[in-house]
Every structure is written in C-alpha cells, then in structure tokens.
Amino acid sequence: MITMSVFATAQDIQTATAFFDQVSARYGQIEDYAADVTVSSEDRLSYGRLFYQIPNRVRIDFEQPSGQVLVSDGEVLQVYIPRYNVVLQQALRRRSEQALATLASEQGLNLLRANYSIAFLDSPDPVELDDESDEMVVKLLLNWRSTNEGYRQLILSITPDFMIRRIVGVTANYEEITFDFVGVETNRGIPDARFEYEAPASANLFNDFLFEGEG
Known about the structure:
This protein is an alpha+beta fold.
C-alpha cells in the first residue's frame, strides 16, 4: 500500500517544476497503460476504457456513448460514431500526433513543461481530490505561454505514485473539460493489434475532419 509518506517528496522539492519533472520521469518508465477514463464538461459526459502505448498510440472504447471508438496508430486518427454510422478519419500532422500523447508520456509532459508555466495550485501539500472524495493528491497549475496551445489553463491532480489522476482543462473559449483516470494499469504488454481498427463496412467515411491532409 502506498502511504502518505510518499508525498513528503512533494514538500521536500522546492519548486513546482521540479515536482512536475518527477511526474515526467515516472511516465518515462511506462511503455503502455490501460485505465478507465471519464471526460466531462458542463453539458457532456462520456466514459470508457483507455489504452495507450508509446510513443503515440491511443484507443478509447466508449461505454458512453455506447459503441463509440476513438483510435490512433500514431499516423491516422479514427473516430467511429455508431449513432450516425459514420467514421471520421484524419491523417495526423506531427503536432497533432504530439497532442494525442501530450499527457501520456515523458516526451509529452516535457512539451507541457516547455509551453506552460508551472506552479502548485495552492501549495505543495496534498489535498483532497474534491469535496466528495478523500483521495489525496498534489495539484499543479499550468498556464499557457502561447495562445497556440489548446488549453489556456490546466490543473493536474497527482497521486502519491506520481501518476495523473485528474486533469481539468480550460479551453481558449473558456470551456472547462475534466479528464479522470481510474484503475491505471501500467506496462501490461498491450499488443500493437489493439490499435488496429476496421470500422463497419456500412459506415460512411469522412476524411480530414480536423484539417486538410498533408501530401
């Protein structure tokens, strides 16, 4: 069992960026992971099972919306929306590939370090995750250095083993989106085939739904 004594490192480290680097180093030990993920905003709630593999493969099998799938093999992003029987497909540019991995790898966290200012939200002391939970976390506040970033502000809640438990992001349009990660299992040897996806043949395909493909 992980005890609260682990959190002493947060207090011993004098700067938030140094603590953030501990989180980045922890993710540097991870080849892959699976977790239950919930994404919520003021008017939307979705949840499902997340699979991640370095450097930039990701898949979410959604329970809500039921049957929806988001998958990227690092080169192509696909989103299957069964409600409309459509597949949205996007050939990824380099920056978009990085965006998928931003909060799931040592490299991605280093990108955040370069593009955001980092501070403790209130102090380096552990606090409850929220008013309804006694789970203890250290909270970091990240503010964008450039308006080119997708989120103007991020609040990262970090567990005693230096894993991200929750991300609260504020978009450029001031929309707040919360990502919760529960039951994280690391280095499971997730096969490459997990990130291969063939949508139903009857689904309508829409290419380049984010931006025009390159080449």
